[in-house]
Amino acid sequence: MSLPPWALRASGKLNVPLYRLSRGRLGGKVGRGAVLLLTTTGRRSGQSRTAPVVYVHDGENVVVIGSNAGNKNEPGCRTT
Fold first, then answer.
1. What is the reported pLDDT for 51?
2. Phi and psi (nearest 5°) for 5?
3. For an engineered disulfide with 75, which of 21, 24, 52, 66 has Cβ 3.0 to 4.6 Å away?
4. 12-47 CB burial, b ≥16 within 10 A, e <16
């Protein structure tokens, strides 16, 4: 089941402040997967954006999973 884009954006916007306030106790897991807050800077706008993403450990490596919560659109892609 995929979420509509507005619901995905709303949950991400709620997750970030809850995660920060609780130091990861709220919003720090999706099922059994751990969540981190990834902050990037817009190439053209220069704006800083933070998004919750799931990650796993692979030995000494950390693998970040950009899944867009299972929706059909890839992360960062918008449809018009």
1. 84
2. -55, -40
3. 66
4. beebbeebeeeeeeebbeeeeeebeeeeeeeeeeee
